[in-house]
Amino acid sequence: AQKVTQAQTEISVVEKEDVTLDCVYETRDTTYYLFWYKQPPSGELVFLIRRNSFDEQNEISGRYSWNFQKSTSSFNFTITASQVVDSAVYFCALSEVGTNAGKSTFGDGTTLTVKP
Amino acid sequence: DVKVTQSSRYLVKRTGEKVFLECVQDMDHENMFWYRQDPGLGLRLIYFSYDVKMKEKGDIPEGYSVSREKKERFSLILESASTNQTSMYLCASLKRGGAKETQYFGPGTRLLVL
Prior knowledge:
With 116 residues, chain A is mainly β. Chain A is 0% helix and 52% strand. Chain A contains no helices and twelve strands. In chain A, β5 and β6 form a beta hairpin. The N and C termini of chain A lie far apart (41 Å). Chain B is globular, with a radius of gyration of 13 Å. In chain B, a hairpin with a 2-residue loop joins β5 and β6 (54-57). Chain B is mainly β and 114 residues long. The termini of chain B are far apart. Chain B is built from no helices and eleven strands. The relative contact order of chain B is 0.33. The interface between A and B is medium-sized, with 27 and 26 residues.
């Protein structure tokens, strides 16, 4: 069975601080996808990134960066110089591939509050 | 732009009623999904479908059924609604293969069962 653990239930930071959201996963599959989603107060899930299991390159997109380490089964997400608009619930998810692509197991989410 | 729409944003039903939640996507996606989201529990997969008339159970299928008669439409059915089915329901779709193999989510339906 697949499992995704986001150990941090809630994080609170002051604007401009850097913050890292942790994600650890378990799977027996050799090929899979990892995702991060943002869910602002409006409720709609916003896709942030998808990573293939065979691609361990770290990725940076503006103030966002992701660190994928297969050896520790972790896929952590860092926001640099956080802003109030980053306040949201963030979900890490693990997905099957092939015909079952998208069949996902989600972590319980981390609620990030960025205070001005 | 990919668009996934859900028939209602808010729904109030009574215990024992039959409830239909509709999801439509306009981008010819093969795979479609129904999740429910409860506070502190993340999203949990109820059912998914990888083709017309094909369906597979997810992690929490009990009390639910689904229907996929057309590629663009995936319906979630609560045969006899119960109060423990009060939740946020999210539909998603995905086109298999290629660089854009990513789930797109609808806006969600908040269901209250009284």
